[in-house]
């Protein structure tokens, strides 16, 4: 073969692909161990560096750096998943995984101790995780507009405890999958209290910033005001005729009762 030809040298345990003119061995281009992954190299003779390693399963690892200091920067799987690495040679740590579904997982921690800290979803939502590797749990889910759902509990048992939306905070109690809203701290200073099982919570009380208390009755979505307690001690009682609210009775702190 002439100049710049590619030829292969066979050994007992491996094969080497080199470029140049036989029999002068020039730049090494591939190392193919028998039954092992194939290493692809680039660079001038004597400075060949590994740039890619192809495994039999189809996984491809990509490398950057000078000869002897190559560091893995990316690992591509046959299913389209891609792992991204950072760090110096020998200490490359996983920092990100992109999936063909559009999800991206982010990691923190030194090599061998990486743990997921966030997962970005295609819909713009991001899941945040806390804990040690192997015991990481969901801590919160944040939407693009800033709304957030907060969770507590061990791995696999995370339960919703709080939602923050547009300045208001909703509090929840109950086991995973059965969380029920028990209180809402509204942005405008009112605190609302709820009763009822998961999915059927109804408002039973609202406490205003100035101390005024409103009591409600009725099923979820049909709550009606039945009583207002003023800071002075005056109590207003309400009734409903054909769906219309009316003041029925007024109780004064001195014991007087006025009927309407």
Question: Which key phrases capture this entry?
Answer:
260 residues; mainly beta; disordered N terminus
Tell me the layout of helices and strands:
Elements: E1 5-10, E2 14-20, E3 28-33, E4 38-42, E5 49-54, E6 60-64, E7 71-76, E8 82-86, E9 93-98, E10 104-108, E11 115-120, E12 126-130, E13 137-142, E14 148-152, E15 159-165, E16 168-173, E17 180-185, E18 191-195, E19 202-207, E20 213-217, E21 224-229, E22 235-241, E23 244-251, E24 257-259
Antiparallel strand pairs: 1-2, 2-3, 3-4, 4-5, 5-6, 6-7, 7-8, 8-9, 9-10, 10-11, 11-12, 12-13, 13-14, 14-15, 15-16, 16-17, 17-18, 18-19, 19-20, 20-21, 21-22, 22-23, 23-24
Architecture overview:
The protein is mostly beta strands. It has strands spanning 5-10, 14-20, 28-33, 38-42, 49-54, 60-64, 71-76, 82-86, 93-98, 104-108, 115-120, 126-130, 137-142, 148-152, 159-165, 168-173, 180-185, 191-195, 202-207, 213-217, 224-229, 235-241, 244-251, 257-259. The radius of gyration is 34 Å and the shape is rod-shaped.
Mean pLDDT: 88
Radius of gyration, CA atoms, in whole angstroms: 34 Å
Helix content: under 10%
Number of beta strands: 24
Low-confidence stretches: 1-13
Instruction: Using the alpha-carbon principal axes, give the shape.
Output: rod-shaped
Q: Assembly type of the shown chains? A: single chain
Binned strand content = over 45%
Q: How do the helices and strands follow one another from N- to C-terminus? A: EEEEEEEEEEEEEEEEEEEEEEEE
Number of helices in the DSSP assignment: 0
For the termini, the CA-CA separation is: 111 Å
Q: Helix- and strand-based class?
A: mainly beta
Main beta-sheet annotation: 24 strands, antiparallel
């Amino acid at each position: 073969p002439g100049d710049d030809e590619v030829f292969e040298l066979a050994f007992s345990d491996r094969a080497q692909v080199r470029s140049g003119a036989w029999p002068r061995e020039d730049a090494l281009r591939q190392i193919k161990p028998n039954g092992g992954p194939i290493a692809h190299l680039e660079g001038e003779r004597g400075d060949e560096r590994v740039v890619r390693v192809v495994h039999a399963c189809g996984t491809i690892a990509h490398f950057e750096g000078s000869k002897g200091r190559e560091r893995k920067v990316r690992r591509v799987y046959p299913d389209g998943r891609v792992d991204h690495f950072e760090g110096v040679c020998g200490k490359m740590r996983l920092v990100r995984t992109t999936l063909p579904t559009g999800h991206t997982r982010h990691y923190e921690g030194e090599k061998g101790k990486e743990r997921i800290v966030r997962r970005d979803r295609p819909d713009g939502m991001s899941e945040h995780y806390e804990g040690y590797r192997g015991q990481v749990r969901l801590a919160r889910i944040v939407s693009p507009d800033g709304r957030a759902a907060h969770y507590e509990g061990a791995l696999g048992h995370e339960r919703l405890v709080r939602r923050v939306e547009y300045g208001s905070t909703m509090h929840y109690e109950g086991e995973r999958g059965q969380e029920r809203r028990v209180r809402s701290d509204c942005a405008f200073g009112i605190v609302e209290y709820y009763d009822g099982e998961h999915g059927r919570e109804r408002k039973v009380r609202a406490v205003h910033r100035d101390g005024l208390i409103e009591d409600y009755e009725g099923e979820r979505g049909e709550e009606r005001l039945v009583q207002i307690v003023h800071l002075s001690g005056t109590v207003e009682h309400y009734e409903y005729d054909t769906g219309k609210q009316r003041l029925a009775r007024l109780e004064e702190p001195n014991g007087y009762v006025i009927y309407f």
